[in-house]
Automatic annotation (TrEMBL):
Belongs to the peptidase M13 family. This is Peptidase M13 C-terminal domain-containing protein. Pfam families: Peptidase_M13. GO terms for molecular function: metalloendopeptidase activity.
Length: 224
């Protein structure tokens, strides 16, 4: 396994015990560590919507990273895969993601860095959408939104699990640090921003127009 950046001996081994996924642009592949394949992140006996919300959304997040890295061919050689029009279209659609992050103020006076966190945010938005669409394909639209004996629908359980998976207790000081130096957004944004852009979320919970977690269609970002 190629590990880049290489930050020290044992890095490759460490990554096997850390539950995470990584994009590997040089081999056009996604690496999911063995440690990820355990409950509660992945459970072969669990209902599909739960695994799609965790393993599925992280895998799709890494997949978007690979797709966004368009400078390598299938054999790893340097090659531009996108046309000039593709690049322009991606940039234009991406402005929406940048603007939503910049407009969010997690604490008074603390501003997000939409440009700097774009790569991770666009992977979060796209990863959620792709995982949810894959689940819809697996279950069928009717079954996805149908409330069953448990009182919830598979779609609702997918979103609960997605939010629970990212649930974080964070001090203001740590949140400030995340905004300043992390390439990822604070977890509250990583949940609420992608969900509020996804029509399936509003449908699953019957959000009324104007609901805070359901952006109107013309304000929804869609890159992937
Ligand atoms: Zn990422």
């Amino acid at each position: 396994m190629i590990v880049s950046p290489w930050v020290g001996d044992g890095m490759a081994a460490a990554r096997l015990v850390v539950p995470n996924g990584f994009p590997d642009a040089f081999s056009n592949s996604v690496i999911m560590t063995a440690a990820f394949l355990g409950a509660p992140r992945f459970d072969g006996d669990a209902a599909p919507e739960l695994n799609y919300a965790t393993f599925g959304s992280v895998f799709a997040h890494e997949f978007v990273h690979v797709a966004e890295t368009h400078e390598f061919g299938a054999d790893g050689s340097v090659q531009e895969l996108w046309s000039a029009a593709d690049i322009k279209a991606e940039e234009a659609a991406g402005q929406c993601v940048v603007a939503q992050a910049n407009a969010w103020e997690p604490l008074p006076g603390v501003k997000m860095k939409g440009e700097r966190q774009y790569g991770e945010n666009v992977a979060d938005y796209g990863g959620l959408r792709l995982a949810f669409e894959a689940l819809e394909k697996r279950l069928g639209t009717d079954a996805l939104y149908r409330v069953d004996a448990s009182g919830t629908s598979p779609a609702q359980r997918f979103f609960y699990k997605y939010a629970q998976y990212r649930c974080t207790a964070q001090t203001d000081e740590d949140l400030r640090k995340t905004v300043e130096s992390d390439s990822h957004a604070p977890t509250v944004f990583r949940v609420n921003a992608p969900l509020s852009n996804l029509p399936g979320f509003a449908r699953a919970f019957s959000c009324q127009p104007g609901a805070k977690m359901a952006r109107p269609p013309e304000q929804q970002c869609r890159v992937w």
